[in-house]
Specification:
Layout: H1 5-9, H2 16-22, H3 26-48, H4 64-92, H5 94-98, H6 109-143, H7 151-174, H8 186-226, H9 231-269, H10 280-309, H11 326-337, H12 348-371, H13 376-385, H14 387-390
């Protein structure tokens, strides 16, 4: 799982609260992490592979939103691989890991592995948090018609730049001036924990606001597309709202245990002796949430694919097929079917207004289709109700 305690454990003079959770059934904990990360990794890849008997996901054009969803899954996959590798080494080479506790040891490889693997996990999951924030921003901008493929470059710069900057800054402050002297005071640890949890708290607090504003904008677009708000439009708006709700629900389920656990451990650190009897329930709660973190953190990747695309099935199709964009085919077929000479008494301004209306409605359909990407029923209803399909 992803926790700043992983980096803190690399300090030979670690605090008592970190020592408590890291020494609690380490073999069981590593086994839980390996099992949860392996299951999530396999199911996530299965979800992303094309399936037999299913048409490829239909998009009016390549969108930044669909690219962001894929990048979130990639971050989860790479973070899960880091958890599997780290826990496997801990289980397979207990003597190697034991050297981390040696304050004046000459072997630097155990500490190097500890710091490197912890940074890898933190960096990938932190980048996933930033990409999820970018997805909320992009969804809102798409509806406002202020986003496009060009914005993905800005998202890359912001996501990877902030993830690397915060990770390196937090690690540098934690291990300053050397690995053997870190954790001598909270002035080392607190900046590290802040840089770790900033993107997580940003998603928890800002994404619901952006999603709510996006849903309101989608409702306005659907009402203004044809001047009426039919059952299809209402159902499509509800499905987009449910998709955002599922995304936030998965995020809260997977990471709320981290916030609870960190709060309990910080409270224990403030006590003169964490082994006192009145603190028994708090210690038990901290250990329970620690194990829960090992289960839920790696499962984020698979649960997110369910929230993004739903269950895509087991039948994998590894054959490459050209992805057809139905909007282009429908546009060309519509033109072919309706290619009749227009009467001479049609005024040009009426023809131009129809073209503008068709263009605006098509842009609205494209924006909404990007938000409902991966939902077959939504795509079908949107296609049936679009002006292009009706031959406008």
């Amino acid at each position: 799982m992803a926790s700043p305690r992983l980096e803190t454990y690399c300090c030979p003079n670690r605090d008592a609260a970190t020592q408590l959770v890291m020494n609690f059934q380490p073999d069981v904990f590593c086994g839980v992490c390996i099992g949860s990360a392996s299951i999530s990794l396999l199911l996530t890849i299965l979800q992303l592979l094309p399936k037999k008997g299913q048409s490829p996901r239909k998009l009016p054009k390549a969108s930044s939103s669909s690219t962001i969803l894929l990048l979130i899954s990639i971050c989860d996959i790479l973070g899960g691989l880091g958890m599997i590798f780290r826990s496997s080494v801990w289980l397979g080479f207990p003597g190697f890991i034991a050297n981390i506790s040696v304050v004046n040891g000459t072997d630097v490889w155990p500490s190097t592995f500890c710091v490197g693997s912890a940074m890898w996990i933190q960096l990938l999951y932190s980048a996933g948090f930033w990409w999820l924030f970018c997805y909320a921003v992009d969804s809102y901008l798409v509806v406002r018609r202020s986003a496009g493929l060009s914005t993905i470059v800005l998202y890359h710069m912001m996501t990877w730049g902030l993830a690397v900057l915060l990770c390196v800054e937090g690690i540098a402050l934690l291990y300053y001036p050397s690995l053997s002297s870190c954790e001598n005071g909270l002035e080392h640890a607190i900046p590290h924990y802040i840089t770790t949890y900033v993107p997580l708290l940003l998603v928890l607090m800002v994404n619901p606001i952006l999603f709510r504003r996006t849903v309101s904008a989608v409702a306005s677009l659907l009402k203004g597309r044809q001047g009426i708000y039919t059952e299809n439009e209402r159902r499509l708006g509800t499905e987009i709202q449910m998709r955002f709700f599922k995304i936030m629900l998965v995020f809260v389920i997977c990471w709320s245990s981290n916030i609870i656990n960190e709060t309990l451990l910080f409270y224990l650190e403030m006590q003169p002796d964490i082994n006192e009897m009145p603190l028994k329930n708090i210690r038990s709660a901290a250990l329970i949430t620690w194990i829960i973190m090992g289960v839920l953190n790696p499962m984020q990747g698979f649960l997110f694919t369910l929230a993004f695309y739903g269950w895509t099935g087991w039948r994998v199709d590894l054959k490459w097929r050209k992805r057809e964009i139905p909007w282009e085919s429908m546009s060309s077929s519509t033109v072919g079917e309706n290619a009749y000479p227009s009467p001479v008494n049609y005024q040009s301004n009426i023809h131009d207004s129809k073209k503008i209306s068709t263009t605006d409605s098509q842009q609205t359909d494209e924006a909404i289709s990007m938000l409902s990407e991966g939902n077959t029923s939504s795509d079908e209803r949107l296609t049936r109700s679009s002006p292009i399909y009706q031959g406008w």
